[in-house]
Amino acid sequence: MSGEPDIAVPARALGDPARGRIVTALLGGRSIPAGDLARAAGVSASTASEHLRVLLAAGLVAVDHRGRHRFFRLASSEVAGAIEALQEIAPRTEIRSLRQHHVSEELRSARTCYDHLAGDLGLRMADLLVSSGVVSELKIGESSSAPEPFPAGQLVHALRIRPTQGRRPWARGCLDWTGRRAHVAGQVGAQIFSAMDAQGWVARRADSRAVRLTGRGAALLSELEQVTNELV
Question: Which of 12, 96, 145, 219 has the fewest Cβ atoms surrounding its Cβ within 10 A?
């Protein structure tokens, strides 16, 4: 039998500005080499290695070995959700350049939160999923099962949405720090981003976790919203 969770363990691991920048860089869901994380954190390679050791020990990140190289990622979607939630209560950094302003606007517009969409686009997709009956009303931190019978329609077909087996919940309300309400995590959140990425609805930014809606994606998403609104 175990007792209550010891939140001091992850809190200590995150209690350094450089480690905070490292886990934020990993929120995009990609595996990133230590050298790139050192640059993102603004520290030397040796210092980054020590920070990564602390994060590994706390269970916040995991490492994949590819030959002689090590690639780091967040340990789970739950870790990503916790970090995103911390961003809601964290003080905002001061924007000191035009580039920082552009990056901030891009992140607010659309970004990845581990393996699902966040930002304005993520909230837009959440509204569409709820209206279509694919997910029930979203509550932050709460999970829900796939509806039965499972709805069929243009949205489900276009984004290849289907329930799958496994421990991961069908949908979970994940706190969006920019919109201050829930976007969709869980199976359906991951499926939607994967389908939109594979079909060219969104394009990833090379140097951040921001994504943008392509012209094709904008047209198809508007069509889906129109069809859904007509059915509601």
Answer: 96
Do 127 and 212 lie in one domain? The reply is yes
Q: Tell me, what amino acid is at 1?
A: M
* CB-count burial class (<10 Å; 0-12, 13-18, 19+) for 49: middle
Q: Is residue 87 in a domain?
A: no
**Same structural domain, 200 and 133:** yes
The residue range of the domain holding 49 is: 8-75
Residue 80 lies in a domain: no
In this structure, are 131 and 56 located in the same domain? no
Q: How far apart are the two ends of the chain, measured CA to CA in Å?
A: 48
Number of domains within the chain: 2
Going by C-alpha positions, the residue among 192, 25, 216, 203 that lies closest to residue 110 is 203
Give, as one character, the DSSP assignment of residue 159.
T
DSSP state of 210: B
Quick: pLDDT tens for 54-94: 999 999 999 999 888 899 999 998 898 889 888 888 888 88
Q: Is 220 in contact with 200 (CB distance < 8 Å)?
A: no
Alpha-carbon dihedral sign for residues 139, 140, 143, 147 = positive
Whether the Cβ atoms of residue 182 and residue 176 lie closer than 8 Å to each other: yes
Report the run of H or E that residue 190 belongs to, with start and end: helix 186-198
Cα 141 → chain centroid = 14
**3-state class of 94 per DSSP?**
coil
pTM, to two decimals: 0.80
